[in-house]
Amino acid sequence: MQIYYYQIAIAAPFDKLLTYKISEKMPIGSIVLCKIMSRTEYGVIMSEILPQNIDFDLAKIKEIHEKTPLVIDEKMLSFIHQLASYNMQKIGEVIDAFMTNYEILHKGFAISSKIKKDKIPAIKTIELSDKQREISDNIIADCDKFSTHVIDGVTGSGKTMIYLSVIEKILKNNSVDNLANGEKNNSDNANSDADLSQYSTRKCDSAACEKISQDGHHPCSNKANNKQNSQILIMLPEISLTPQTSSFFEEKLGIKPLLWHSNITKAKKRDILREIMSGDARVIVGTRSAILLPFVNLKMIIIDEEHDSSYKQSEKMIYSARDMAIMRAKILDIPAILLSATLCLETHFNAKSGKYRLHSINERYTKVKMPEIIVVDMTKKEEKPRSGECISARVLQIAKDVIESGKQVLFFLNRRGFSTSVMCGACNEFLGCENCSVNMAFHESKNLAICHYCGYTSQIPNDCKACKDVDKWVKIGFGVERVALELKKHFPSAKQQIFSSDEVDKASIDGILDDINSGKTQIIIGTQMISKGYNFPHLKCVVIVDTDTGFLDGDFRLYEKTYQMITQVAGRAGRFDERGLVLIQSYQQNNPAIMAIASMNKAKFYDDELRRRDSKYNPLPPLYRQIAIIISSNNEDLASNIAKNMMKHLYDNISHIARIFGPAPSLIKRINRQFRFRILISFAKKQGFMQEIYDTISKFQAKCDVMIKVDVDPLNFL
Ligand SMILES: Nc1ncnc2c1ncn2[C@@H]1O[C@H](COP(=O)(O)OP(=O)(O)OP(=O)(O)O)[C@@H](O)[C@H]1O
Ligand SMILES: [Zn+2]
Questions:
Q1: 180 with 301, same domain?
Q2: Nearest CA owner, ligand 1 atom 15
Q3: Residue range 402-423: average pLDDT?
Q4: Residue 415 confidence (pLDDT)
Q5: I need a surface site. Which of 179, 329, 544, 651 has the fewest CB within 10 A?
Q6: DSSP state of 386
Q7: Do 704 and 597 share a structural domain?
Q8: Residue 506 domain flag
């Protein structure tokens, strides 16, 4: 009996492949179950290895424990490999992230077993303005191969409508080849209520689909096929995936997209995965993990709000879903479309240098002018709020006029809860978190002090631990609840709504949005949850209560992030009939982000920011690349010593080609009982020493009790 040996990536945090044997030939990419120590784990066959190339006792090699009918295709395997190597993540950790979906398919989760087939919908025709049409046509002409398109359009310019129109064309033709070869007018001439059934020439029939429900595998799952339905992935940041998303796309496009995010049940995920693998699912709207889905005929990836930091996953497998979307598009030879009103510097740089194709749109679809911006200098005596308050009298007066004219005002403050901290008035000691080196915020609505980093909660104690004085607590700083209280005093009869993750959940959001959209709500007090994607018809005035960005102070992206945040919120004002008004309460008149917003000089802001980062002494992204290494342990000395040793090792090996900084405690030294130290490596693009860094890390990784994480292109320094 012939024995075959395979190298398998096990879904566990290993960085090496393990060798297993089996008495039959298996396709590369097969998903199997293997025993490892006392556990059984999923794994993927990555390659075959001949017995003569195995340098340990063949008799000790274990058998593959169980086969599954699932096989990962070549391009998906290539994506897995490249994702692991670009991000310097352990192959096992990457496989683990992908296996979550395959495990759901394999195990069945047979709670709902029938996919409800809706009537085949009629795809609607989307009318565009001339400028929108020009961009849409340009993208369509280039949609049969890999390219990265960037749509840089002001808030309200209708970027969503542009990509929906591109999707409409692809769905109606069901072949990007025809479109890109100049047959795009077919769809314009076609009956706008075209029946999709004429295009559904996919290979799979419902009997075949039914097979998935029995063994979790689909016969056609690995074959991208021109006759199969084109699939399109739209990626959105975490916070934009509200229940309205689905109805919005359905209303505009006539087709109900599948929604993919972390809060859906496994049974529902299984149904969605089956639809994706059978090719039935055409439009999938998802958050960052959607980039890992097993599409069978993906034809385009759209990344909306591409600048949003929630595309970065910073736990377990660390990766940027935006960048991985471009990587996946390249492997599949399909286009990736990035959109934002406030591009991140990296994307701006790539677009400017011609690596990405840039499309700009500088006016709103409604032709309403961009809002008027007024910066309120809070350092001036006449602007000083009343004691214990945070809104200037001038701003309150303007807000009053707006409300009396029947319009809405949004007060934006990116801080949840009532106060940012609680201090003992007797000894000035702050109430800190048990697990993290941060102050606890106070939430009046829950009557609890809450740590916003680990979620730890506690009642405010009677006496102060430090000085034993009783009940001298003072609440310091402003959160949305406190602003709401202040506004209630000034506008007692106005209906107000706090829009934060504490107040708005899946159950309440529909009602809350109805009241805002109908104009019943007059004052909105919102955190970043409100900053993107919403179109509020009655919103005239936006007040940026505080431009302070907290822990961003040590971050070289401070101005970029401030610029993005304020521009996005400001962009909610006056989108429809009347020009909006934005009031920025600022204590820093010279902040370049605020100056750029006030003077509406976006180009200068991006140019200045690029120039600032092009420093001879410390060049920064996007001109240079960075890799952060985070060493953490509940034992501070241990983490610190390992960090120092690793630093020495890196210094000896790569300091001639890279700058290495650290080790330094993270900005928040301790989170969730873990002390954290960071090393930062900065290097010119195209330096090929990733392997040396990886090897160094692997050497130290063996030490237990210390966790070593690599963050390629880090976005935060906490
Ligand atoms: N071609 C169009 N036909 C009808 N309505 C449109 C069109 N383009 C834009 N609009 C309307 O204009 C408003 C803004 O459009 P959209 O939300 O697509 O803008 P955006 O550029 O994505 O803005 P943001 O960056 O703020 O999200 C929406 O209410 C949208 O329905
Ligand atoms: Zn904490």
A1: yes
A2: 158
A3: 95
A4: 92
A5: 651
A6: P
A7: no
A8: yes
User: What's the CA angle centered on 141, arms 168 and 602, to 5 degrees?
Assistant: 85
Instruction: Indicate which CATH number applies to the domain containing 540.
Output: 3.40.50.300
The b/e string for 452-476 (b: 16+ C-beta within 10 A; e otherwise) is: bbbeeeeeeeeebeeeeeeeebebe
Reported as a pLDDT band with limits 50, 70 and 90, residue 4 is very high
Q: Is the per-residue pLDDT at 342 higher than 80?
A: yes
Whole-number Å distance between alpha carbons of 407 and 400:
10
Residues 548 and 646 in one domain: no
Q: Which residue has the higher pLDDT, 20 or 716?
A: 20
Query: Ligand 1, atom 11: nearest CA belongs to which residue?
Result: 158
Q: How far apart are CA 532 and CA 434, in angstroms?
A: 34
Q: What angle do CA 240, 246, 248 make, to 5 degrees?
A: 85
- Mean pLDDT rounded to a whole number for the chain: 87
The four Cα atoms 570, 573, 578, 582 give a dihedral, to 10 degrees, of -50
> Which of 109-118, 187-196, 438-447, 521-530 is least confident?
187-196
Same domain? For 401 and 331 the reply is no
Query: What is the pTM assigned to this prediction?
Result: 0.89
DSSP tag of 452: T
Per the model's pLDDT, the better-predicted residue between 669 and 401 turns out to be 401
Where in the sequence is the domain holding 63, given as residue range(s)?
A: 4-107
Question: What is the edge-to-edge ordering of all strands in the sheet holding 4-10?
Answer: 18-22, 4-10, 39-48, 30-36, 66-71
Q: What is the total count of domains within the chain?
A: 4
Q: Is 451 within any annotated ligand binding site?
A: yes
The reply to whether ligand 1 has any atom less than 6 angstroms from the CB of 571 is yes
Which is it for the CA torsion 346, 351, 353, 354, positive or negative? Answer: positive
Provide the 3-class DSSP secondary structure of residue 595: helix
Band (184; pLDDT cuts 50, 70, 90): very low
CATH of the domain at 661: 3.30.70.600
Are 624 and 412 in contact by the 8 Å Cβ rule? The answer is no
Residue type, 408: Q
Task: State whether residue 560 is helix, strand or coil.
Answer: helix
Which one of the ligands is nearest to 454 CA? 2
User: What is the SS3 assignment for 128?
Assistant: coil
The answer to the question of residue 420 being in a domain is no
Its ipTM equals 0.96
Could you tell me the pLDDT band of residue 644, with boundaries at 50, 70 and 90?
A: very high
Report DSSP state, residue 547.
Answer: -
485 plus 382 within the same structural domain: yes
Q: Could you identify the residue written with the tokens 């959109």?
A: 339
Say what the pLDDT of residue 114 is. Answer: 55
CA dist., res. 500 & res. 509, Å (int): 11
Does the CB atom of residue 153 touch ligand 1 within 6 A? yes
CB atoms within 10 A of CB 443: 19
Ligand 2 centre from 459 Cα, in Å? 14
CATH of the domain at 32: 3.40.1440
Q: Which two tokens stand for residue 144?
A: 């049969």
Same domain flag for 312 and 190: yes
Per-state percent for the chain, helix, strand, coil, to nearest 5: 35, 25, 40
> What separation in Å is there between the alpha carbon of 511 and the centre of ligand 1?
23
Q: Each residue of 321-331: pLDDT tens digit? A: 999 999 999 99
589 and 702 housed in the same domain: no
Tell me what the mean pLDDT of segment 425-429 comes to: 92
pLDDT of amino acid 49: 96
Please give the pLDDT value at position 66.
95
Of the listed ranges 120-129, 296-305, 567-576, 595-604, the one predicted with least confidence = 120-129
Distance 156 CA to ligand 1 centre (A): 5
- pLDDT mean over 175-188: 51
Query: Which residue, 581, 611, 641, sits at the end of a domain?
Result: 611
| Residue 464 is labelled as binding a ligand | yes
Assigned domain for 435 exists: no
Beta-bridged to residue 361, according to DSSP, are: 153
